[in-house]
Design brief:
The structure is a single chain. The chain is of the alpha/beta class. 49% of the residues lie in helices and 15% in strands. It has a two-stranded parallel sheet. The chain has a two-stranded parallel ribbon with strand order 3-4. β1 (13-16), α2 (20-27) and β2 form a beta-alpha-beta unit.
Length: 110
């Protein structure tokens, strides 16, 4: 799914609550190359679902909340993102997320 979205030209960013030691390891993984930004709560000083975490991510992305589709597996994180104006998708598996993302992206084209 990540490779498909990247190949289609969508900007991708990772927002993770991983501690610094894990964040450092994630940046070295092959999948990291698909993301324009790797944003870690340990580095921005706030964690999901804190508003400050999402504000920091939006600033790094130079994007408004309305421009972002936020994908996460945790309802509390999705609720906080939606409260800021982001469109959200609850991740349960790649096929489900692919379908929901496709529906949102098609609406963007209309």
């Amino acid at each position: 799914l990540i490779a498909e979205l990247s190949a289609a030209g969508h900007r991708l960013a990772l927002l993770s609550n991983a501690p610094e030691v894990i964040a450092a390891a994630i940046t070295e993984l092959p999948v990291a190359r698909y993301f324009e930004h790797l944003i870690f709560s340990a580095r921005v000083g706030a964690a999901k679902p804190e508003r400050a975490c999402y504000e920091a991510a939006l600033a790094i992305l130079k994007a408004t909340a309305e421009e972002v589709i936020f994908l996460d597996d945790r309802t509390d994180n999705l609720t906080a993102a939606a409260a800021m104006g982001m469109r959200t998708v609850r991740f349960t598996d790649s096929d489900q997320a692919r379908g929901e993302l496709a529906a949102l992206l098609v609406r963007d084209l209309k």
